[in-house]
Specification:
Blueprint: H1 2-13, E1 18-20, H2 27-39, E2 44-46, H3 55-62, E3 68-71, H4 91-106, E4 118-121, H5 128-137, E5 155-161, H6 165-176, E6 191-195, H7 199-213, E7 218-220, H8 226-238, E8 243-246, E9 259-264, H9 271-278, E10 288-294, H10 299-308, H11 313-322, E11 329-331, H12 333-340, H13 344-356, E12 360-366, E13 369-374, H14 379-408, H15 413-420, H16 434-440, H17 454-468, H18 475-483, H19 488-492, H20 509-522, E14 525-528, E15 534-537, H21 539-547, H22 561-572
Parallel strand pairs: 1-2, 3-4, 5-10, 6-8, 6-9, 7-8, 9-10
Antiparallel strand pairs: 11-13, 12-13, 14-15
Helix pairs in contact: 2-3, 6-7, 10-14, 11-13, 17-21, 17-22, 18-20
Length: 573
Amino acid sequence: IALMKDQVDSLTRRGIPATCINSAMPASEQTERLDYLARGDYRIVYISPERLRSVPFLQALRSRTVSLLAVDEAHCISEWGHDFRPDYLHIAQARKELAKSSAATVAQDSILRHNAPLTAALTATATPQVQSDILRLLGLGDAARIVTGFNRPNLNLLVRYTSGIPAKLRALNELLSPRSANWQFAPQDGATIVYTGTRRDAEEAAEFAREVVRIPAEFYHAGLPAEERTRIQNDFISGKVNVIAATNAFGMGIDRADVRQVIHYSLPGSLEAYYQEAGRAGRDGLPAKVVLLYDPQDRALQEFFIQQSELAGDDLRAIHNAIQDGSQVWTTLDSLSQVTGMHPVQLKVGLAALERAGALEHLGDEGLRMLFRKGAWNPKEIEKAAANSKEHVRHRQKQLDGIVAYAESNACRRKIILNYFGDVGEAEAADCCDNCRSAEAGPGSRGNVDQMTQGERAALVILDCIRRVHIKVGREKLAQILHGSKAQDILKFQHDKNVYYGRLEAVKQSDIEALIGQLIEMGHIKVIGGEYPVLSLTPRGENAIKQKESIALDLPKSLGATELRRAKAKLEA
């Protein structure tokens, strides 16, 4: 609705007669606009897909010739997209209805295929599979398929490896701080959107920005009252608010040109979702940063959402029973959750499945309320829906694997994205990504090992130990190897044969882990993997070894003179 209003206001200022019709309007105003539409007073009309099921709207539309049907966010029509919306499935039927009404008046117009309006389906995030779905489900046949524009050369794609909440918050503090000196734009020069995986994280990230970074910030999620969400959106678009922490409920209809940073505080569920949200940065064409704060443990939240989306026939029956009989029934996710005991994610998936099975008809929304008409229970269709649910879970797992691979890769991040979306264009950008920057960088502060401090030597020892371990290990295990632990696992897997085994024996194991943490936050080491995360070198870490780079680590203050001498002797060995 916000996007419709914004677009209509912009067109009206340019003297183009346009309007929007949505469920938030009083019935009298909707009727008035339908009369104007039938009379031919508008050139452009904005609606949501469910409006195409409204008999009064279709009647008003049939009295005019529709020359163009533009479908925005067309990926929503595909079950394999990242934001499936069943209402989009009704567009094809409405298109056929428009063709029937056009046949009597413009049958001679050869521009229109089968008298249906010229149709453009637009999306910023569609894989080849989703593109094919769009053509099929809209009934577009062999329509021209144009894939371009996935490369946004002004976006600098970055992944920061942040193992644990404290590391995430330190990174967030750095990225939001007005004192940040490593970027040509200060955060206050434009807007920042921080995307989180949960409502609680959105609230806490906004509070952190206000209380610790000392900058104004708001949070936004679907749990806020409609009036509050509208206020925050308007304040952000107008520039009154420059920092927002939000769930993925924020963004649709937000068109602000000077977003300088999009920060993903949590791992998104797919590359499609990630890149759509990333695309809200730098719309003015000026440089902008897209930063993913990656912790392998974040995967668990997305896997929870995926598990919650799998539904059996009994689950669908419970949702169907929870909706009262009647021609028009209002309900909310919260009330359905109370009756069924299901998570809202399960309910959203279940409602969509019931609609596809013909057991439910979604008539529209008003704020958090949803309007349904209950249909007949068809066991065969329900069985098919349950089987489809399992397939959908497998697909979402594959999508999650894709975003994890992106986060953990040492390859060009831009190329990964373009390949994923089937864009064969060049991955060109002045400031491409963190991996390319590290690969292209010449030697930094090249060090003479003999002249290095103990901290600089320790940094290279840790990095080279990671490179040389024959089985990847996590932070604790690496610290054990460097400390010279006699633990059973260390000896069993022959880590005691590593050239750096015991090289930091004078340093407490917990302090070695802290040194590893410093290198992670500096971007030399990344934490990757699933249930049991392991350490790996980033391109920057690999370069540091090759160039014998001087990396200043803060040695633990607990090291006394004797320990320092022992550490120095070991490091010089």
